[in-house]
């Protein structure tokens, strides 16, 4: 990813140097202007169209006033959100979705969340967003009798990225605050309007014409696992296991519990393959107590052959310590339980054991076995602060059993044992006897308002849509991002309903509406940030002038300048921290 960004930046820099040199020597025509990587192509054509569109002035002023009210609310929210995010990053650099600077760029293939497969839809969304945004400014200029010097196309290097409208600077400066403010808010208003239209169409007839193919949808097979060896991989849909029909991941898990080691698997394409199950370590903490790495295959536990997850669980049911043998003949003996990277100093467990800051494996809690982290978490959720329970744990390889008075988990209100850095699985390893990574096809469709949708509020739907491209980091337990109906995931869906006659075209339409709405919503939010040169910065200035003009003071202009400068610099600093802070602070 970093090398891709380097090539892109190198190309942009080369273009900027060459284009600037050509402009300085007069080789470019007057209608082409260069400012670094930005090239603008100017024209005066189209003014007559704007004059015609601006005729119902009363309507457009009412439209802009409504949009201004929405913009002011979003501006306040943007200010609070940016400050909150910046402070959170200072305290916890890993808490943000944008962990690398390139993730702030809306460039498919450079931004890790935006794949090249949806580059056409993203570019279209940017074009629509910038055209309606700048068109809104131009339209309100004519409504408020502000002349337009020129219009045209804006490019980043040679890539068209939208349109622009250039008002007459003197007339804009001399216009009253009301017309100026409406003009600056018009672009954001249009972006939000396009968002509403795109998402209304997406939520309605388009997503209503998309269904989920029955079965277990495979996003990929974990390397070295039985499923991968059997040829089950990305895009496969499992419909049957050992003669049992499966429609979801729960059905698959139940079928595997009752199945033999060798299991026939039916796929939606009509083929059947055979999976020879074996117990593979799919994830492992570095230098953990067990000492096994990802990809190791466990063949026996305490001398008894074991090839399945159910066998693994049964073998550990009453044993706090077990010996594991792998396919290369090596053995390892370790405590089997919930692993945490450290005992919280001054916490309940530390107070009971006299140990703090050390790694720990909790093997029994309140007399019950805790063979993995999930078991410990489930037991803790049933406790109350102040309860005293007996805890068996291994610290530094030594067993200790103590009576621990639980603290309070401030997030859930349940009991707290006092450990941090809990790792999933058993003693820091996760095992799988099949090896697929299921793709949440039904969940993504429900988030778009399709089959199985929760039918929540409009705000909930907007939040879900905003986070879908970052689902793997924004939603616990989800390992995939949703970029649209593209690539292998198209095989998990079928065209049905009122637009089913379009076939695959319904997926193209859904992708276009999703990204046009998503891009316009983000453009609107971003331009509402109260800092220059964004629209929010200009609206902040005119709004501050309106308030300051009513104050009984002499230096109104100085106070306006001080307020707008302070807010703008604060916002710029916070935005820079949001973009560059995670990589700098965590380094």
TrEMBL record:
Q: Where in the cell is it found?
A: Endomembrane system
The GO cellular component terms are:
cytoplasm; endomembrane system; membrane
Question: Entry's InterPro entries?
Answer: MBTPS2, PDZ_sf, Peptidase_M50
Which SUPFAM superfamilies does this chain map to? PDZ domain-like (SSF50156)
| Membrane-spanning intervals of the chain | 62-90, 184-203, 462-483, 495-516, 559-580
Q: Where is it predominantly found? A: membrane
* The organism's place on the tree of life at top rank: Archaea
- Organism of derivation: Halococcus morrhuae DSM 1307
One GO BP annotation of this record: membrane protein intracellular domain proteolysis
Question: PANTHER family this protein is in?
Answer: MEMBRANE-BOUND TRANSCRIPTION FACTOR SITE-2 PROTEASE, PROTEASE M50 MEMBRANE-BOUND TRANSCRIPTION FACTOR SITE 2 PROTEASE
Stated name of the protein: Peptidase M50
Assigned keywords, A-Z: Membrane, Transmembrane, Transmembrane helix
According to the entry, every stretch annotated as the Peptidase M50 domain falls at: 123-553
GO MF term set: metalloendopeptidase activity
The record ties this protein, via Pfam families, to: Peptidase_M50 (PF02163)
* Membrane topology, from the record: Multi-pass membrane protein
